[in-house]
Design brief:
By secondary structure, the chain is an alpha/beta fold. It is built from twelve helices and twelve strands. The strands form two sheets. It has a ten-stranded mixed sheet. A two-stranded antiparallel ribbon has the order 5-6. Helix 5 packs across helix 6. The longest helix is centred in the N-terminal third of the chain and has 15 residues. The C terminus is likely disordered.
Length: 343
């Protein structure tokens, strides 16, 4: 269901744009209609009020929970969409949620399960927002990261519509909306233009253009130096640092030579380098380096002038890699923990 379609449905019930915004805003905040300054009976048209149960049922029908898998640091959720396709969200520590923007992905990152099926379809902005709403029914949400299934740059209109709703109506600080991308010139053109300018996370993974092309075979051919230049310009514009994502893979991008080049590339930049030890997937040959090695790399880079944070990929013990729940559901393979009760 499209946001425009849902608005037209309310408009047919006599709802003006401000009435439509009220219904959508209260849904997005996961709060009752009577929590606002104006009571529904004093504000909303009667036909709209009478139709609210049906309208809320339509919004709730955007997602249905298939399974829930808890670990010490995260809760992974597998959702079924109205057409039977499935996507994943993750409840993160410190009141965050990671959401998906596509069913599947066209980039085909070699270390990610999501891209193995290719791109199946885009999520609408309402389907993206519904993941946040359902998360808010389980925990407070003050940060939304677009790092789940899919490449947000390939669904730019719907992702930006969702971001603007979250930033303008959803009580999420703009810097706590994190747009993650492999890098696309359209991102650097579009993000500065809107009323909400999210934080930006760029998937770097290596300083070597040829290796990056191998790991991210269908990402736009922007050299690492070009990505950093564009990222630096955006960071200076919005006044919060770029996050460079580096999935640390044993024997692939964890050498001393690689990080000497990373130091030259990133030193002095308004940026944070997130080192994320690879979340092992049994179906793929890649492996994560030892935690001691990852810690040593992060410590050395920070000491030499590149702020580096070592981030553990949430849900290691519950097949938590992006796309794994969906892939195992499709294959009929159980994940490492049994699903909990449904919401």
């Amino acid at each position: 269901m499209l946001l425009t379609t849902f608005r037209e449905r309310m408009q047919a019930l006599g709802a003006l744009p401000l009435h439509q915004d009220r219904v959508l805003r209260d849904w997005l905040r996961a709060q009752a209609l009577d929590q606002g300054r104006r009571r529904p009976q004093d504000f909303l048209p009667k036909p709209l009020r009478l139709a609210l149960p049906e309208l809320h049922a339509a919004l709730d029908g955007l997602l249905s929970e298939v399974s829930r898998h808890r670990s010490a640091d995260a809760t992974r959720l597998l959702w079924a969409l109205a057409d039977g396709q499935t996507v994943e969200s993750v409840l993160l520590p410190r009141e965050g949620v990671c959401v998906s923007s596509q069913v599947g992905c066209a980039v085909g990152c070699q270390f990610c399960m999501t891209g193995k099926s290719g791109l199946i379809r885009q999520l609408s902005s309402l389907e993206i927002l519904a993941q946040v709403v359902r998360a808010r029914r389980l925990q407070p949400v003050k940060k939304v990261v677009f790092m789940g299934m899919g490449e947000p740059a390939h669904n730019l209109a719907n992702v930006m519509e969702a971001i603007e709703w979250l930033g303008l109506h959803g009580n999420i600080a703009h810097k706590n909306l994190v747009f993650s991308t492999v890098g696309d010139p359209r991102v650097f053109e579009r993000l500065p233009q809107g009323p909400v300018r999210p934080a930006l996370a760029l998937s770097l993974h290596t300083t070597r253009a040829e290796l990056r092309a191998e790991l991210l075979p269908r990402a736009p051919r922007m050299a690492p130096e070009e990505l950093v230049e564009a990222g630096e310009a955006y960071a200076r514009l919005v006044h919060y640092p770029i996050q460079y994502q580096w999935t640390l893979i044993e024997g692939v991008n964890d050498s001393a030579e690689e990080f000497a080049a990373a130091l030259r590339l990133l030193k002095g930049k308004y940026a944070v380098l997130n080192l994320i030890p690879y979340n092992a997937v049994p179906e793929l040959a890649f492996r994560r380096p030892s935690w001691d090695k990852a810690r040593a790399i992060a410590r050395q880079l920070t000491a030499q002038g590149v702020l580096t944070k070592l981030r553990d990929s949430a849900g290691q013990e519950i097949d938590g890699g992006c796309g794994q729940l969906r892939a195992r559901k499709l294959a009929g393979i159980p994940v490492l923990t049994s699903p909990s009760r449904s919401a």
